[in-house]
Structures are given as structure tokens and as C-alpha cells.
């Protein structure tokens, strides 16, 4: 059962404890609010200001699990705080561990400070959970995907359009890389894991993956430089650094260009063009 009073109090106190700079927002010279404004938090939670305001006022509909998860992420809650929020809202907290999708406050704080850099937070299955604006401009909004198509590895083997973003000479290696990584995950997580289910689905649809699977190659690791072919600004050679959250098996990927290089200039152009230059996200069955 929902605890409306407790939920409203917890939401208000957590919102007031967050500062604009904590979530990558400018403070502004005339700001008087001690924490985030309701409308600012509503944007972070991907919901209307009216909906969020009613929750803080102990009224409105019973929030769904999806809504509670969005609020927990927008408030940059820890796992313990997230679980408390779910219980206040009358829901059982999601399972913790490698299959969870709640991004840690630490990774979010770093991502929020990378507004001028392509970056994303992904699960171990290659599902994009969060992106910076320049990350969206680089690869498209991958957070809109649903079902198995959320995984880059699944799309790689089932959607030819996915490969168009990468240099053709890299395709063979990337196929081996995704096959190797998925095989390692299935062994690590077990036959009843999400990794195993994803492997089963992808193997059923891709002859190429079946061939690579039979080769039983493991231990491949991504190359330090990723070579993209952007449909608007052209070829990009980007170094990729990663930071891992071991508790959730989430990875923050940050893409950078050599200063003064042609790629750096093209990246600056992409930053100016923004989301309007993002590659089109074609629907993938799944």
C-alpha cells in the first residue's frame, strides 16, 4: 500500500538536497531555491511537472513501477534510497545486481559533467541507459530501443543499418568481439540469465553469429580507438575510455578526439548541429 505522506516527504527532501550542479544544470545568478525546482526534477524524471507536483502534495495517481524507477534515477538515489522509495510507493524493490538498470549516483554525476563530450552508460549486454547530448548526436538516441533490440550486440547481428555507423574494415573484428563477449557472459551468468536469453534469440536470427559461436572464441577486447562513419560529419576516430561500476556491471564510455585533429573539428561541428544530426533510429523487431 502506498504511503502518500512518507512518499511526499521523501521526494521533497531528496529534491531539496540536490543542487543544480549535481545534475549538470547551471545555477544562475538569481537563483533563490535551495535545491532543484520541481520543474527541473520533472525533466530529469521524464514526466510532467504537474504529475510530479501532485506526488509531493500527497495526491494524484498511484505511480507505476516504471514511474518510481524514473524518479529514483532523476533524484540520483543510491540503491538503498531507491528501495526505500519503491516501498513508500507500495511496490517491491527491483532486484539488485548485474541485471539491474539503476545507475549509481557516482556514474550519473560524472556523466552530467560531460555535456560537451560523447558519452553513454551501458549495461554488460550493451544496452544504453543514459547518453550525453553529444552521445545522442553521435549514435542516435539508443535509450528509445525496446526488447532485445536495446542490446547493441543484438542489433549488430540482426539490423544491417547498425553497421553503417562503423568503418567497414572494422566489421569483421566487431562481429568476433560481440560473439566472444556474449559467450563469456552466458558462461559467467548461467543458462537462466538475461545473457543466455539474448544469445538464444540472436542465434536464432543470425547465421553469422551461429558460425562465430561454433568457433568458441573468447577473450577478445575492444580496441582503444573506435572508427565511426557519421552520416553528417563523416569519419571519426575516437578514443574510448571506460569506467566500471562493479556492483551493477554498468560501464561509462567516454569518447574523445586527439586535440587539433580532423576528428576533433568534426566533433565540434557535431556539437553545434546537435540532435538534428543524429543518425536515424530505425525500428528493429523484438
UniProtKB/TrEMBL annotation:
The name this protein goes by in its record: Helix-turn-helix domain-containing protein
SUPFAM superfamilies cross-referenced by the UniProt entry: lambda repressor-like DNA-binding domains
GO molecular function: DNA binding
Highest rank taxon of the organism: Bacteria
Record domain HTH cro/C1-type: where: 35-82
Residues forming coiled coils: none
High-level lineage: Bacteria, Bacillati, Actinomycetota, Actinomycetes, Geodermatophilales
Amino acid at each position: 500500500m502506498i504511503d502518500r505522506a512518507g512518499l511526499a516527504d521523501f521526494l521533497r527532501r531528496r529534491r531539496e538536497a540536490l543542487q543544480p550542479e549535481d545534475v549538470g544544470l547551471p545555477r544562475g545568478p538569481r537563483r533563490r531555491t535551495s535545491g532543484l525546482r520541481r520543474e527541473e526534477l520533472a525533466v530529469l524524471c521524464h514526466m510532467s511537472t504537474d504529475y510530479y507536483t501532485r506526488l509531493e502534495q500527497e495526491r494524484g495517481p498511484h505511480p507505476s513501477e516504471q514511474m518510481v524507477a524514473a524518479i529514483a534515477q532523476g533524484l540520483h538515489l543510491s540503491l538503498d534510497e531507491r528501495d526505500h522509495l519503491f516501498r513508500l510507493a507500495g511496490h517491491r524493490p527491483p532486484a539488485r545486481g548485474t541485471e539491474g538498470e539503476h545507475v549509481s549516483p557516482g556514474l550519473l554525476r560524472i556523466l552530467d559533467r560531460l555535456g560537451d563530450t560523447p558519452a553513454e552508460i551501458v549495461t554488460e549486454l550493451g544496452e544504453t541507459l543514459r547518453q550525453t547530448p553529444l552521445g545522442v548526436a553521435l549514435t542516435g538516441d539508443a535509450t528509445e530501443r525496446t526488447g532485445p533490440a536495446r542490446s547493441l550486440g543484438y542489433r549488430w547481428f540482426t539490423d544491417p543499418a547498425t553497421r553503417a555507423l562503423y568503418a567497414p574494415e572494422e566489421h569483421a573484428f566487431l562481429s568476433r568481439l560481440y560473439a566472444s563477449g556474449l559467450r563469456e557472459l552466458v558462461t559467467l551468468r548461467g543458462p537462466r540469465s538475461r545473457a543466455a536469453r539474448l544469445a538464444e534469440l540472436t542465434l536464432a536470427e543470425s547465421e553469422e553469429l551461429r558460425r562465430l559461436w561454433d568457433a568458441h572464441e573468447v577473450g577478445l577486447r575492444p580496441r582503444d580507438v573506435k572508427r565511426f562513419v557519421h552520416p553528417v560529419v563523416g569519419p571519426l576516430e575516437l578514443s574510448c575510455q571506460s569506467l566500471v561500476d562493479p556492483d551493477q556491471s554498468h560501464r561509462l564510455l567516454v569518447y574523445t578526439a586527439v586535440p587539433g585533429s580532423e576528428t576533433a573539428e568534426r566533433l565540434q561541428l557535431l556539437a553545434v548541429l546537435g540532435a538534428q544530426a543524429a543518425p536515424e533510429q530505425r525500428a528493429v523487431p523484438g
